[in-house]
Amino acid sequence: MAEDLGRAGPEGVLVPELVPSRARMRTTIARFLRSDAPGAVGLVVIAVMVFIVIFGVMITPYTKDQIFTEVNPEYDPRSTSPGALAETRSAFLAGPSWDHWLGTDTKGRDLLTRLMYGSRISVSIGVGAAFFGVLAGSIIGLTSGFAGGKVDLVIQRLVDAMIAFPGLLLLLLIVQVGERSYTLTLLALSVGVTFGSSRIVRAATMKTRGETYVEAARAMGASKMRVVLRHVLPNIVDPIIIIFSISIGANILAEASLAFLNLSVPGPSWGQIVNEGRAFLDSKPLMSVSAGLAITIVVLSFNVVGDSVRDWLDPHQRAR
Amino acid sequence: MTGYIIRRVLLNFLVIFILATFVFIAVRILPGDYTVEQIATRQFAGGGVEGESVEDLMEEAREALGLHGSIIEQYGRYIRDVARGDFGISLQTRQSTISETREALPYTLQLGTMTLLVALVIGIPFGCLSAWRKGSRLDAALRVTAMLGLAAPTFWTATIGTLIVLETGWIHLDVLGHPGIWEDPWGSIQLFLIPAIAGGVGIGAILMRLVRSEMIAVMGTDYVRTARAKGLAETAVAVHHGLRSALPTIITLLGLLVAVVVGGTIILEVMFNIPGMGQRMIRAIGGRDLPMIQTLALSIAVMVVFANLVVDIITAVVDPRISVSASDV
Fold first, then answer.
1. Domain span holding position B33
2. Which residue of A has its CA nearest to B216?
3. Are A296 and B153 an interchain contact pair (Cβ–Cβ within 8 Å)?
4. Chain A interface, mutation test: which of B7, B12, B156, most A Cβ atoms within 10 Å?
5. Tally of domains in chain B
């Protein structure tokens, strides 16, 4: 039983167990699955998605740029029309088959393979931008909230201005500075997350700053850096995790919008696939529809899990 | 109240100044000479004067673009021009960027207004309904729909909407004619309807979630219980006591959503060939038309800032507590 309460520290003092034991982890997860079914489903979808992101490219027998051909139905060596001279032609928007589960795209490439490559771009940028954006936002928010006074005033007016920018416009302004690349898209989306999250971190910091334990640490002569890192930061981790998990879905959507406008990473990004298929919407809608569905499902899962994380860490919200 | 409004207006000018600076930096991060070189070679290809080198042309182009002198000088000139309302000439169309923007504005305003209307029509009634029937199957279905509306990308819902219209022929999409509201009201509304619905669904979903949680919170308060106890009809309680006190929060959110609506119109204008500010922005980015990018970005940002100002003032009127307690803003 002593194990549950804590373990003996080096001096024989009972130190509270901070790392949950494996058994407790299991019951926590089981309770989570029972109490929050949508969150659990979302988590499963995300797990499948992560599997596809990592292994999908290894499972598919094709590469993303491999072009497939089909027998040319108009083949006629005596014909004079150029379309009828070749025996085969690229499989333009072929329907689903055993070889190509979702058919081929406008250039005769396997659509499912391209969607799998696209998942790498969407998910990695979505999560990456949430990470870097919230990291930068936390640094700004902590500085602003803890320093207070003039520093806070100046930073907050800057943040005011940046928040007034419509999200997509801010992204466009950043993306237009250079060639389309992964880094540039990641940077733009991170900046998009930074200012909003800095607001939340600032508010949480200001609340913590007035607590007695912070005052006590200061009175004991702790340096500002130490107070921030050891006393304030650990107490505002929850809101930071909440904004991180909630912004992932929005980032994936924003990346898809940029890709749709041909302003994101070059390659089979989901938004770009929707755009490429749009010209043939009335006859062969599968390409646009499947890529759009992929975005919707992934964003939905991240949003649902984000909401669950918020309910979990901030039960006040759930009560409403 | 007056003091509050004056403070807000002054604050907005500060915000606009910062925005202008940001736009200046964003448009100038890329070495200006890339653009200048392009313009110079274009002029060169178009038959330059004998003996004139590309170097001279580049110097001329720099002057024309305001890219000459040190970065501080350029910034000073830029701020002065912006303050005067002189935004320069578009490199693509050779027209003043401000008149281009003025031509584009009605289209964006129309699409934005229609989008917001769709969002309100979806968000408020369904949010109230969801809160009223909290915990029921209807509530669950509405919440799932809202989550779907949040997750589906606007450009995709618009694509699906177009697909349906193409199949059924319910609406005539005059994509090539892109009629304005004054010339051909009915044609214009038909063209704008699908994009407005596509954009409005996502924003309506955000609104609906907020209305639901606000209404649930308000309907649990003591004064609502008192209103019920004195025998008021449930709808009267919901409208006069519930919605009335949830209103400031809803209006505040609407203010924040204006930026989202405007951002969303960019992509929808491109899709439906609506010659608004968003479509021009994308075209300007494609052609590296710096003066045009600068003017459009700044005008959109100013629009959003002032929409927020209006919303703040309305909120202060609706909720008198704000102008009193916000004296530190």
1. 2-83
2. A320
3. yes
4. B156
5. 2
Do B74 and B126 lie in a common domain? no
Nearest to A253 among B18, B153, B300 (CB): B153
For residue range B190-241, what is the model confidence (pLDDT) as tens digits? 888 999 999 999 999 999 999 998 898 888 888 888 888 888 888 888 888 8
Q: Which of residues 141-160 of B touch A (CB under 8 A)?
A: 147-148, 150-156, 159-160
> Using one digit for the tens of pLDDT, what is the confidence trace for A88-129?
777 777 778 777 778 888 877 888 889 999 999 999 999 999
Chain B nearest-CA distance from A212, in A, is: 25
The confidence score (pLDDT) of residue A60 equals 81
The residue of chain B nearest to residue A169, with distances taken between CA atoms, is B263
Residue B269 falls inside a structural domain: yes
Residues B155 and B291 in one domain: yes
Beta bridge partners of A69: A90
Which residues in chain A are contacts of B147 at CB distance < 8 A? 300, 303-304
B54-113 residues touching A, CB cutoff 8 A: none
**Are residues B68 and B191 part of one domain?**
no
Kindly state whether B303 is in contact with chain A, defined as any CB-CB distance less than 8 angstroms: no
Q: Is residue B88 situated within a structural domain?
A: no
Are B159 and B66 within one domain? no
Kindly state whether residues B237 and B287 are assigned to the same domain: yes
